[in-house]
Amino acid sequence: MPVSSAATTAPSAISATSTSTSIAAASAADFDALRRQDPELAEVILGETARQSDSLQLIAAENFTSPAVLAALGSPLANKYAEGYPGARHHSGCELVDAAERIAVDRATALFGAEHANVQPHSGSSAVLAAYAALLRPGDTVLAMGLAFGGHLTHGSPANFSGRWFSFVPYGVDAETGLLDYDQIRRLARENRPKAIVCGSTSYPRHPDYAAFREIADEVGAYLIADAAHPMGLIAGGVAPSPVPYADVVCATTHKVLRGPRGGMVLCGSHLAERIDRAVFPFTQGGAQMHTIAAKAVAFGEASTPAYASYTHLVVANARVLADALAAEDFAITTGGTDTHLITADPAPLGVDGRTARGRLSAAGLVLDTCALPYGDGRGIRLGTAALTTQGMGQAEMARIAVLFSAALRAEGDEIRRVREEVRELARRFPPY
Ligand SMILES: *Cc1c(COP(=O)(O)O)cnc(C)c1O
Hints:
Elements: H1 5-9, H2 22-25, H3 31-37, H4 39-54, E1 56-57, H5 67-73, E2 84-85, E3 88-89, H6 95-112, E4 116-118, H7 124-135, E5 141-145, H8 161-165, E6 167-171, H9 182-192, E7 196-199, H10 210-220, E8 223-227, H11 232-236, E9 249-253, E10 264-268, H12 270-284, H13 290-303, H14 306-328, E11 332-333, E12 342-346, H15 354-363, E13 366-367, E14 369-372, E15 379-384, H16 386-390, H17 395-410, H18 415-428
Parallel strand pairs: 1-13, 5-6, 5-7, 7-8, 8-9
Antiparallel strand pairs: 2-3, 4-10, 9-10, 11-12, 12-15, 14-15
Bound molecules: pyridoxal-5'-phosphate.
Pyridoxal-5'-phosphate is lined by residues 61, 123-125, 128, 152, 154, 200-202, 227, 229-230, 253, 264.
Enzyme class: transferase
Main location: cytoplasm
Protein name: Serine hydroxymethyltransferase
């Protein structure tokens, strides 16, 4: 039985053969009208909907939103201009979108126990940009996880504003254990006296020790910014520790395990509220996306239910089972397992590197990312169980998926087609919508 409210209220599945828009019934959007007016684009949307339901989505940052979230996203709130904040907009006619944003903010602060929430960032990266804009000046030194160890682009990549405008000092993980090395972080903090320390990663499968980060930040007089883009949904469900009591500012996405619309948010104490709000608008963004903010409110409402808490328990239980099963198929699991939705692994023992593995797995309908490994230049694979768990999959399916991984990587010639067919059959037993 699917655990998500999405799955329990969803209409029948959308399959590759049936392009009838059952999704339209669950959404404010009129897919039949789209198909009549623009068959070319409708075909693309329906094709992507079919792709999501007949392959397995193991990208750790992805999930399936509920039809209620999709309905809010496809609603006429998309038409409304709303620069500013509730009660203080630069446009008239904002009474109802003000109500939507107030609901989103109230639900976010209650869900995460934060004094202040800004729900306007268009993405997780925009949330991080706003946090830096609120606390730092160009040229300031920032200590963050190095990109080669799982730091995000916004943690100092030269290709990103962060690396261009700030002076980043990278910390890593222990090459042997893959775990954060707090002695190294403390030493680098003492040597470099950063203005801010960022904790958070795109691929760390364990819980950061937020108290240890706080202690180090206090010792050198730095702000602590938690980039909880990945674990935020687990925090909401109570299966991961919260950075809110420790960090000055918490940045997050709303579309990963949290299962809301694509977007970001920032949480902080009351004393930083005004600085954060100004850093989001007008400093780094223009008009707020009110349909997305309404969808965030819906997702926060869903995430405060017991059903969602059970979902997050299952996400972690599934990830642990999948990690163990992959280890039994000879994958080298970084840190030896996981405490979260996320697994990183080196497929080298199966004779392939991360890039080759991603290609072969994708050909079999197993969709995931490559990632940095704690040692050397080689790449590993990164996967997560948030989407599979929303579909209602459990431990038996995780064990099956590990066998399919190994079959896909060992397949020769035409054998990959048989694996692809098995993946399709499995996926179709658990329709996301
Ligand atoms: C996903 C992620 C982001 C950015 O999210 P976008 O919405 O893609 O901009 C930022 N930081 C971390 C650690 C992430 O994992």
